[in-house]
Amino acid sequence: MTDTNDEFDHLVFIGRFQPFHHGHEFVVKKALSKARQVIMLIGSANSPRTIKNPFTFEERTQMILGAFGDTDRKRIHCLPIDDTLYNDHKWLQNIQTAIVHTTEANARIGIIGHNKDDSSYYLSLFPNWGAIELPSFENLSATPLRKLYFADGIIDERMPDASWQFLQAFKHTTNYVKLYDEYHHIQAFKKQWQNTPYPPIFTTADALIVQSGHILLVERGGEYGNGLWALPGGFLDIDERLIDCVLRELSGETGLSINHNTLKSRHTFDAPDRSLRGRTITTVFHFELTGDDLPTVKAGDDAKGVFWLPIHALDGKKMFEDHYSIITNILGI
Q1: Mean pLDDT along residues 269-286
Q2: Which has the closest alpha carbon to 54: 152, 176, 173?
Q3: What is the pTM assigned to this prediction?
Q4: Whole-angstrom Cα distance, residue 189 to residue 185?
Q5: Which residues have a Cβ under 8 Å from the Cβ of 58 and sit 6 or more positions away?
Q6: Helix residue ranges per DSSP H, 101-133
Q7: Quick one: CA dihedral 139, 66, 31, 10, positive or negative?
Q8: pLDDT band at residue 261, thresholds of 50, 70 and 90?
Q9: What count of other Cβ atoms lies within 10 Å of the Cβ of residue 171?
């Protein structure tokens, strides 16, 4: 058992751990030496598999706990944290709720992480907690590890055996094949723009159509985001306005034509990393329809399917890019 100075009852480590590598392991070991218990808050727990978030919460928990012996493993608690891209207050509430439900009253709580990365940002958000800021471990980052893995099938050795073994087994799954193909599709897409004088910024328009507690969604076809649920929409043509773009895409993908007067609001979403294809800014047009019967829709263009989804059935793990966060932001749910 690791000796502990009991400076804290609980130390909190926030990250995505995609995958769990020696830099993460370094932080956990330091936390185990400073606290009775370590709480791992694992982000993007409600996201589908993508080359940025390829592994589920359960799979990342397996990698984390597998890196430690039985005694230390009992002191590590892994909890899922959902993405709330356009609602920082909701994200903070999720963090606070997870901690309150895991710790005892009057516990000495601290947050631990590397400096000069996302952890530095986290450290500033919880002024009531103590903090331990650690140097970056060999400048190790999960991003280049994922790039090697999906570009060439190479597993970097700078990770615990449990992570290495998991990644080796994962290479033989259909999920890996799909992500491998998606990675190379995205790289080919980006290659088309590599010689432009400035990095391109793409503009899209999406439709949020709501009627009788249902949302109109498409199931994506194509090589990017295949099978995921998305708002109807697409790229802006050079000779059209945004409203014309969204109505064109809506009709082409779902067969639905709607009256401009049903437009309730419009919103711009511009998170720099919202799309893996590159910098993409979208305007979402929110339409509220009335009537007892949901309009008949039919998939067209590159949509694999189209359907009306009850709002209660929204599932971030099935949603394309940031569309789950967009919907919850606009509808306030």
Answers
A1: 96
A2: 176
A3: 0.91
A4: 6
A5: none
A6: 118-123
A7: positive
A8: confident
A9: 14
